[in-house]
Amino acid sequence: MSRVYPFDDAATARAVIGADGMLTEWNEGARRLLGHPAAAVLGRPATELLADSGPPDPPAGTRWAGTIGLRHRDGRTVAVWLLAHRRPADEEHPGDWLVVTPLTGDGPPPGDDPLTAAGLVQSPCAIAVYDDRLRLHRMNEAMADIIGLPERRLRGLRLAEIGGRRQSEELEEGMLRVLTTGRPLDLQTFLHTGRDGRAHAWLARMAPVRDPAGRVRGVCLAAHDTTDSRRARQRLQLVNEASVRIGTTLDVTRTAQELADVCVPALADFVTIDLLDPQEYGGEPPARITAPVRLRRTAHRSVLPGVPEAVIDPGTAEEYPDFSPQADSLTAGRTIATSVAVGDMDQWLTWHAERGERVRQFGIHSSMSVPIQARGLTLGVAVLTRHRRPDGFTPDDVLLAEEITARAAVCIDNARRYSRERETALALQRSLLPRSLPHTAALDASSRYLPAARAGVGGDWFDVIPLSGMRVAMVVGDVVGHGIQASATMGRLRTAVRTLADIDLAPDELLTHLDDLVVRLSEESGGDGSPGEDGSPGEVGATCLYAVYDPVSRRCTMARAGHPPPVVLQPGGTPEALDVPAGPPLGLGGLPFESTEVELPEGTVLALYTDGLVWSRDRDPETSRELLHAALGAYADSLDETCDRVLHTLLPSGGAPDDVALLLARTRGLPAAQVATWDIPADPALVAPVRKQVVEQLDTWSLREASFTTELVVSELVTNAIRYGAHPIRLRLIHDAATLICEVSDTSPTAPHLRRAKTFDEGGRGLLLVAQLTQRWGSRHHPEGKTIWAELPLFEEDG
User: Whole-prediction pTM value?
Assistant: First the structure.
């Protein structure tokens, strides 16, 4: 539905010239001015109306104003002042020109005209007064300065004809509402390009103009420049956006990219982020920089797809000389704004020809280098450039870029410090974890350790520890917390477990001693080295599972301290969790631990793990356990493949939210033929027959070369047991391909001590001899007494 305007169409001479130069519109005012009816001129070249011999030069830009001679219908020449607007190309106006000139209002209005009284010509505010036909009646110098034309040239034109843009039409519609309703109206910010070439934001305030009788005689339009407040809001919005978008992760590259993304296109058309390599400065970024400086491209962003302005790719390092904007900014420690037009970058662009070519190719005209500094350290430089936006960087732009960069610098430094601490903790933890698992006769083992993807390195650990009698201990633990402190605590606990395992403590006893250690560590971690006032433990806590497997008996004894129970897969069976008493976590102090003994047939797969493997925010623990059992149930003779399958099944693709330690062990059984046992009589004179039986057994095992050493060791250990031990006494020999073990057990709890005998002592040399003849020896206690054992290495005949 078309709007009805109170316009006198004949009061303005108006014509439209198409892009091809033909007249497409001709109103009544144009006929009054030149006498030509519309039918005589429409569809004909506009140049036919020119009185001069040739057409003028085509106007530049989107607006033209000037006086030109036109041909009247009666043949005379009429000098006419014209205002022409090039209208944006669209379906309605395919790039044509609107040409207008007023036919009325040439003389000044009468002095008693109410419109004149309302003109406020002296006001510093831009004011224009339009009559009841919405044609310009008066405007002050401030408004003329905004429009760029004097009042005498525009008087009698409508606002849409003066502005020639859609925004002018919207303002004119608002003026019509004021004229018809008699109520004031404010139109929020609209854009208008001023004489400085920059887009200004304006607030239009419209009010009716009334005569003494109260009748609406026109509309007063006041324009207020809100550019500064609008830009302030935009800057605040950009700073707030930067606070939200920058620093979402503790990743240096991601944070640098977020900084570049925030600045484009809000502040620049092309942004590069180049950071210093700390390794070149001894591991820590310097406080001051000297040129030349080597920087590594970490991120960049452009308004153009593919970032074609970039000369180097992210990850590439480049050296910048002292006359480059990057080095200049870093050495000065402040923002440096440069302009191609004034020659600030001539030396740099001449020295780096490829960059100079990109500047010319894309029309880059302004650049701003902002140092990235945080906590007194220089981390790198952000370079912002413009080529699509025609205006250069202002002081306000510099302040805004510095504020955003300062916020990003703290995030980059946080990410850098986190990465450094994570790498240090990871290196520490890997140095504390076993590099490879020992080969034992008791079991085959495979393991995996994965640090947390985001929370940082934690205190998970695992270990396989060979024990006496061909037995082997398996341990998996988890220290509460993350970081270097957790890794260091893990190292202390792992060392403690190895030390306690070396004295052959039962699993429940070992956890009791380990619990005491964690309590002491908790006390040491407090500020004053003591527990809290309420007697609660300190900050250190851990869980642990300790198991000992004997390949001779094929039995496994285990105990746990708040740790997930192991999962066992027997040959031909299905995975199931072993029922091991949970026990309290380590560090509570004073609570008992219980051991459980189970028989594991040869070929049984035992899975020990930390809770990071089964804990997930996306699924409940029962579902995780079902997934673990399903992954283990697909075991097909390869422990390594099973480890990988378990991790792939339970952990997300982006990494585990917590540390994960996984230990898989497949049990072996030692055949009865490789074990020989004798009950020893109490008479020392009967030791010789025992030695003879031992030599005969070694012959049966084809171990004759070890007979001499074994005979001496057996003689010393059995003699000591008869003299100092308690009956019954038992001798046991165990061997595999590499080791022969000699064990003598008795019911006395007293263990022998190695000492050096004096010259005239009759005894005291036996254990010293055993220590010199064997690979290692020791003692272990059990409920029935003690066992003294010694290991002898076996060698091949051709070795």
Answer: 0.59
Task: Give CA–CA dist 303/388, Å, rounded.
Answer: 9
Which is more confident, 450 or 134? 134
pLDDT tens-digit map of 638-671: 999 999 999 999 888 766 778 889 999 999 998 8
Peptide bond into 728 cis (omega under 30): yes
DSSP state of 57: P
SS3 state at 271: strand
Are 267 and 401 within 8 A, CB to CB? Answer: yes
Is pLDDT above 90 for 796?
no
List pLDDT tens digits, range 259-298. Answer: 999 999 999 999 999 999 877 766 677 777 888 999 999 9
Conformational region of residue 117, where left means phi above 0, alpha means psi within -120 to 50, and beta covers everything else: alpha
Q: Work out the angle at residue 108's Cα, subtended by the Cα atoms of residues 105 and 109, and round it to the nearest 5 degrees.
A: 85
**If you ran DSSP here, which 8-state letter would residue 45 be given?**
B
User: Can you give 429-458 as a three-state secondary structure string?
Assistant: HHHHCCCCCCCCCCEEEEEEEECCCCCCCE
User: pLDDT value at position 254?
Assistant: 93
563-594 pLDDT, tens digit per residue, is: 999 999 999 899 999 999 999 999 888 789 99
Residues 158, 10: Cα–Cα separation, whole Å: 12
Q: Is the link from the previous residue into 265 a cis peptide, with omega within 30 of 0?
A: yes
Reported as a single tens digit per residue, the pLDDT across 3-38 is 445 666 778 999 999 988 899 999 999 999 999 999
Strand segments (E) across 333-471 = 336-339, 366-374, 377-386, 443-450, 458-466
Phi, psi (deg, nearest 5) at residue 82: -120, 145
**What are the start-end ranges of the E strands in 106-198?**
126-131, 136-139, 185-193
Residue 74 CA to residue 671 CA, distance in Å, equals 130
pLDDT classification of 476: cutoffs 50, 70, 90: very high
Asked whether the beta carbons of 742 and 714 are under 8 A apart, the reply is yes
Give Cβ neighbours of residue 582 (< 8 Å, ≥ 6 apart). 560, 562, 565
Residue appearing with tokens 């039995």: 555
Residue with tokens 């207008």: 100
* Tokens coding 579: 């029922």
pLDDT at 324 over 80: yes
Structure confidence at residue 420 as a pLDDT band (50, 70, 90): confident
Please choose, from the candidates 215, 105, 202, the residue with its C-alpha nearest in 3D space to the C-alpha of residue 150: 105
Q: Which residues contact 513 (CB under 8 A, 6 or more apart)?
A: 496, 500, 505
610 vs 756: CA distance, rounded Å? 47
Q: Is 343 left (phi over 0), alpha (psi -120 to 50) or beta?
A: left
Residue 465: both structure tokens together:
């520890």
CA distances from 128 to 112, 131, 142, 500 (A): 18, 10, 9, 95
Burial 45-82 (b: 16+ CB within 10 A, else e): ebeebbeeeeeeeeeeeebbeeebebbeeeeeeeebeb
* Cα separation, 148 vs 374, whole angstroms: 48
- 660 forms beta bridges with 450
pLDDT band at residue 327 using 50, 70 and 90 as cut-offs: very high
Which residue has tokens 């398996």?
474
Q: Are strands 270-276 and 293-302 parallel, antiparallel or unpaired?
A: antiparallel
Q: Helix, strand, or coil here: 100? A: strand
